[in-house]
Amino acid sequence: MPLSPQDVLHIARLARLRVSHEEAEKARIQLNSIFNLIEQMQAVDTQGIVPMSHALDVQQRMREDTVTESDQRNKFQTIAPAVENGLYLVPKVIE
Amino acid sequence: MINDSLKQLSAALAAKQISSVELASLYLGRIATHNARLNAFITVDREKTLAEARSADARRAAGETGAMLGIPIAHKDIFCTDGWRTTCGSKMLSNFVAPYDASIIGKFKQAGMVSLGKTNMDEFAMGSSNETSFFGAVKNPWDENAVPGGSSGGSAAAVAARLAPAATGTDTGGSIRQPASLCGISGLKPTYGICSRYGMIAFASSLDQAGPMAPSAEDCALLMNVMAGFDERDSTSLEREQEDYARDLDKPLSGLKIGLPKEFFAEGLSAEVAQKIDGAIAEYRKLGAQTVEVSLPNMGLSVPVYYVLAPAEASSNLSRFDGVRYGYRTAEYRDLLDMYEKTRAEGFGAEVKRRIMIGTYVLSHGYYDAYYLQAQKIRRLIAADFAAAFKQCDVILGPTAPTPAFNSGEKASDPVAMYLSDIYTIAVNLAGLPGMSIPCGFSASGRPIGLQLIGNLFSEARLLNVAHQYQLQSDWHLRRPTGL
Q1: Degrees (nearest 5) of the Cα angle B290, B295, B297?
Q2: Looking at beta carbons, which residues of chain B come within 8 Å of A76?
Q3: Is residue B430 scored above 80 in pLDDT?
Q4: Which positions in chain A touch B378 (Cβ < 8 Å)?
Q5: Are residues B233 and B171 both part of a single domain?
Q6: Looking at residue B64, which CATH number applies to its domain?
Q7: B156 and B77 co-located in one domain
Q8: Which of B8, B22, B205, B437 satisfies CB 3.0 to 4.6 Å to B4 for a cystine?
């Protein structure tokens, strides 16, 4: 099912990407050609096949719940777009 | 000296015929002369490099003797490098100075290797031509009208032009092997989980794997000895005994069984590439190997499967770039949502946005089963194809890419055509297997052609052996582009 212009705007909104109507139209054409390629998958019978989420079937490792990192707040905040008193600044969220 | 192998450079440093500072200066000089044209490096910092070289010389003077001590290397700009700008080829990280070292960078530093700088790449490793880099496309040193491949195109071009004796790369769907093929060098993508992903900016976490890029398989083996190994900071790092990846290089190939998947030699493969691969097969027979036809019936599905799974993982991984803690933030915004949307719209390039949107869609409500889950199921079929093939052979051989390097701009506006240039490499990532590309000839127009060798899980030493024995009989990997 080809994507409509509304679909593209909806996806972009979910992905937090601002797109103009013009860009959405261009993206729609390209995404549809990519989905044409992807649709080849639908012809494959995969009944009973266990999905493979990882290259190797390994267990997630556990470790002791102990502190392993030191406090590097200053170092990390020197590369932030906006900070004040050790806090990251964003536009007001709660009035 | 610029044509010396890592083993030769190591011997020259040990014999004090040259210092690390002199060696680094030699390569920095070549970068200064040629990089403006090739655009292989995004960031070069002469003082930092020379400081690392001085430190290597001091360590040697104090009695240290590591094999790689003092040898320069270039790093793909996907590896966080403490104090160095680390951009991942994106405007989003164009101002990002990494506050820590990726594990692999730490290992190279510990071994005393000297960083020559950060190499250009497709934005967030998404591309096969290096044309999606925010910092401009890389030129192929063999032919400036040709792409160098991607996404590790800067690393491949830097090594091919001998702006560095070796480089690091990463491979999610072919990003080490395809540029190695297009630039006429050797490159290895190890088994998933062998090299730590900590500090390597994530694209598709279940597929991403770092590996070495250098003129020869022997060089790659020596680099693997530094970069491989367990890392508790990477949750998918494998706990295995340390290996010497060079241990089998000199083994004869008599009795080796080479599998030739019929799907690799079917429609879509250029006659010129097929001819060079046939030449290499003939050489392997002379070396005592036998060939057997094998089949990977689901290989054709690897591209569609990959373009569901990799974008799905990417859409999740790249959600961290929001303009809050690091990287680019848009100049003007009304509220938080406006800030996110504009930051990401301005900070990401077209291909990255395309893949984020594909990933967002295939993971969204109502489509998950049809796309993401179906892709994961077919991924298992693809992995099973390889497992069945390896019952009949020791290694699989075929082309790395369907054609020699294509022209810049040729596929830039057609994503699907670009995606299909990775048709022979992607399945290997989906199955988690090691794969390698080595040079095996040139096209009539003088563009390099690469041979792909695929091994079973953890068979890197065997792959390197098979590649090295071929390189003892051929000189394709020693050829250099003219004018450099």
Answers
A1: 170
A2: 99, 325-326
A3: yes
A4: 41, 44, 46, 49
A5: yes
A6: 3.90.1300.10
A7: yes
A8: B8
* Domain count along chain B: 2
Query: Domain check: are B74 and B161 in the same one?
Result: yes
Tell me whether residues B377 and A52 touch, CB distance under 8 A.
Answer: yes
Testing the interface with B: which of A7, A10, A34, A71 to mutate, by most B Cβ within 10 A? A34
- Whether residue B374 and residue A41 make contact (CB cut-off 8 A), yes or no, is yes
Q: What is the ipTM of this complex?
A: 0.95
Residue B374's alpha-carbon distances to B147, B205, B299, in angstroms, are 34, 19, 15
Domain end (from B329, B345, B376): B376
Domain encompassing residue B353: 300-376
Summarize pLDDT for B444-458 with one digit per residue, the tens: 999 999 999 999 999
- Could you read off the pLDDT of B130-169 as tens digits, one per residue? 999 999 999 999 999 999 999 999 999 999 999 999 999 9
pTM above 0.95, yes or no: yes
Residue A69's alpha-carbon distances to B82, B192, B202, B452, in angstroms, are: 16, 26, 21, 41
* Domains assigned to chain A: 5-40 (1.10.20)
What residues contact residue B475 under an 8 Å CB cut-off, 6+ apart?
none
* Cβ–Cβ gap A30/B232 under 8 Å: no
Same structural domain, B55 and B155: yes
How many angstroms away from the CA of A17 is the closest CA of chain B?
5
Q: Are B78 and B201 in contact (CB under 8 A)?
A: yes
Nearest-CA distance from A56 to chain B in Å? 7
